[in-house]
Amino acid sequence: MFSWLEKNPFFFAVAVFVVIAYAGIVEVLPNFTENARPIEGKKPYTVLQLAGRHIYIKESCNACHSQLIRPFKSETDRYGMYSLSGEFAYDRPFLWGSKRTGPDLMRVGGYRTTDWHENHMWEPTSVVPNSIMPAYKHMFKDNADIETAYAEALTVKKVFNVPYDVENGTKLGSWEDAQAEVKAEAQAIVDQMKNEEVKKAFARGEIKEIVALIAYLNSLK
Questions:
Q1: Residue 142 maps to which CATH number?
Q2: CA distances, 100 to each of 104, 108, 187 (Å)
Q3: Domain of residue 116, residue span
Q4: How far apart are the C-alpha atoms of 7 and 90, rounded to whole Å?
Q5: Are residues 9 and 100 located together in one domain of the fold?
Q6: Which residue range or ranges hold the Cytochrome c domain (predicted)?
Q7: For the chain, which ranges sit under pLDDT 70?
Q8: Which residue intervals of 135-206 are DSSP H helices?
Q9: Which pLDDT value is given to residue 11?
Q10: Which of 19, 55, 99, 154 lies 20 to 30 Å (CA to CA) from residue 46?
Q11: Distances (CA, A) of 170 to 90, 124, 163, 211
């Protein structure tokens, strides 16, 4: 049989493809599936964090900042532990990026504070003198879209079985429950901010985009 295959290149190529494909299914696919599972302790985004993620995408932050630390010493020395597949289990879409006009933000929540983000978004050069990033002062005036964020969380819970409202997981609940959770999370952020207009708006029941964005950035660890 093998001598016959050696004399027929086409069928030999087909046989090699079948063997490699089978090996891939048996060896690679199960390992890939296992690695794609959420890492221990990974929780879905809160509604406020999802609202901030929507702003991050809307403002095309991912065009200049990646969220993927590769397993090279030069990257881990600068950005921290390399990224694992399971860390992106609840990301839809992924924001890995392929360009770094600015630094990678995969672990930014572990070394930047709310105060730093507030100053950076208001006037980037105030904290990074040579920054070419534009200021995002409109985020201090525009309200975050909390309803859309709640709708997404509810959708992925029902369609993709994302573990909201489970033991030791992220609380979602009803719209009224979510509003209360958002308010409490936003309160902790607003208390650390200096911008008086944002504070006054929050007192009126408004949550500005900057608050939601900071909530999202603080979750990246």
A1: 1.10.760.10
A2: 7, 14, 32
A3: 47-219
A4: 51
A5: no
A6: 47-221
A7: 1-2, 5, 26-36
A8: 146-159, 175-190, 196-203
A9: 77
A10: 99
A11: 12, 32, 7, 19
